[in-house]
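User: Round two. Same drill as before: sequence, then structure, for each protein.

Assistant: Same drill it is. First protein:
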Amino acid sequence: MIMIKLNWSVFALALTVIVFSNASTTSLANQINPQKPDGIKAVSDEPHKKVFVENIYPSAKTCAACHPKHYSEWSVSQHSYTQMSPIYMAMQARINTLTSGTNGDFCVRCHNQVGMNMGESIYTSNLDRPASSREGVTCSVCHRVNKSYGKISGRLPLVRGPMHSTIFGPTGNKNVKYVIDDPEKKGFRVVTNPEERGLTMHGKAEKFFELTKPGFCGTCHDVTLLNGFRLEEAFSEFKQSQAAKNGVSCQDCHMGKVPGQAKGYEHGPAAIVDGVPTPSRKITNHFMAGPDYPLIHPGIFPHNTEAADRATLAEWLIFDHEAGWGNEEFEEFADEVGTAIDELKETLSEFKSGIGSQNVSYNTDVIDESVEPLFDALKSKIVTTIHERTKVADLMTDLAKHWSGIKESPINSGKFLASIEKLKINLNELQKSLNLNFPEMWSDAGDREEAREILEHQFERRKWAKEQRFKVLSHGYQLDEINVRKANKDGLNFDVTVRNGTNGHGVPTGFDAERLVFLQVTVTDSAGHIVYVSGDRDPNGDLRDSHSTYVRAGKLPVDEDLFNLQSKFIVRLNRGGEREQVLAVNTSVSALPFIRPEARATVLYGRPLGARKHKKTIEPLGSRKASYRVPKAKIKDGEEYKIQIKLISQMIPVHLIPAIQESGFDYGLSPKELAVRVVEGASTLWTQEKDVLISYKSVSNE
């Protein structure tokens, strides 16, 4: 992919609409910081930067006031996640490290056109970016484009202007004029003059024909690297498809009523201005379902105007929603147990203070009266996980031990005072273990409960997005019934066919070298014992292929029967050989590797240069057959076996995470946290099962 010094091409990576990674800011941050356009540099470090950015690229939050349906769909989409993804952020940073920074803004130009146009550093944390920048493919990215640029790998010049300036859409100025003309009579209370008070809206909408054409999608969804390496070919695949010949567009399938199918569009108001709907017309779905899913805190994704008003991104990150903060059960627990801990702490402080002032009236019965309510409160509660139960039990044992030390030691003795200090430390640890050590921002129960209400809405949006994602993926990938070819003394042989259910492009498509779509096959006997398995995972969550660290270390055998539609990057080595790599950046023979743009047409070579992609996708309406054989030594005559086959989609392979972890991940996420969430987010699209009776007398169907 990336042309590294001499003849070394390569890096093949630009996480398309996904993924969600961020590189922590390091000294590398100063290596790539493109010159900021005039007018931005002067205010880049000032407190008013966010206001300035809003006046040239309005945030989607501003658009939500009149376009709630579009915003709701977009806010949980892959487009809105492109910049928020910690995987993408770390990957682009790692690629730049491996290429001495010369990959530049190649990745960010698709994931964050606003940030690219403002000349932001690619290493900036999303916590420090203005809203319209971290929103990724936001409203301005499509509706502030007024020219047809073709396949330019995302380098889109955006038309600048505040909220009231011209925008570009599919229908022109008709509805805008309808709202602006005689607004009082129609009930619209809007202003198009920034000097006036009121709900600001764009003063004009120009028709941009390209916005409704497949070519507009091709500006980002056909990626060619600097050296001519074809990283993504979704648009090119579409142009060669039957769907294109039939006049079906990308928008027809991905912005219509049914995800992934050209079943028509919804109709309704394009805007609801100050509570008043505009005339009904065709409206498009701005979710555009795909294979990616979020890996970050629900307080910061989906985008949510109420969440943004409630707390900053950094403040949301310290809200422990997994502990149950804000829900009724937890808050009752926090009130009872938290109060008991606080009272015991206060009693200990007063007791020690009294001893220090020679107040001999203090006795240990005072502490007894505070310890007992704490034990009683904890006994009445059930701590959920085994880890939590064990930890709390250990802490309570220590608490009892330190309390005994207080009661058994002479007042004011060294052991007595030390036991008081240990007991206070023990209480702090107990508070932390029970998730009761609230930061100041979330110390009030009322604030936590308000935040929980917002998160419940976020969970509902994520659930809806998962349902839409399942619809488009389960249509794109089809799994036939299991075909048993042999079930006799020679073994158990069977196969299954996976089909591409769409006629618009291959599956997977786009960034297909990072898309796992695989078959998990399990054969069990009548007792439930596994006699055969393929498509299972190693302890890291990877499949047992050549990228598994357990396979490479010889701890697990390679899965010879693995069916996986993930394409592979094949990278040339220094002496002419090739190998698979998850990051297609060649090992450079120079001290400072860098990308060198190819000056000649790749077609002239008739061969791959530094790297190539081994595509394993299924062509439109095509199919692939997976065959399996259970050795005869594993089966018995007269025994019944169950074959289960699952077709699973996962947005990235786990082994990508350690490959990019040196750059760090945004939001303070660890590689393990991300790996767990990646695996948990995988979707089982189809399941086929079949019972087979082994008979040594039966004849093979082969």
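Second protein:
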Amino acid sequence: HMVVDTESITTTAPSSVVKIRVDLQVINEVRTTFTGTFEKYGTKRGRGKKRCTVLMLNICELQTSKPMCDHLWFNRTKGFEQLQLTKGQQVQFNARVKTYRKGSIKRGIPIVYDYKLSHPTKFKKL
């Protein structure tokens, strides 16, 4: 069954709960200015390489101050590097909303498509 709330759609499959970022879905493929709060750096494995990541919390659209999602992981690009972020730092940036596939058939995690912010640019500490 499906439950709708202001931030996401939750679908309950036999063994999992999957949240889709509905507010980002509305502006899919649109380049927009956002704000977020830096939480921490992390790593992920991709194609055999270890890649550095950045966790941002409380992502909002700048113009409307509308909350878009509670968190997003970004690749640690030069733009993020140059900011030298500390936990709790507010950041403004431009990004395009894109779809991405998540889940794993091998690991038994259902495949779903969600929304992310891609190619962040024009970073500014707030």
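The chain has a mean pLDDT of 82.

User: Perfect.
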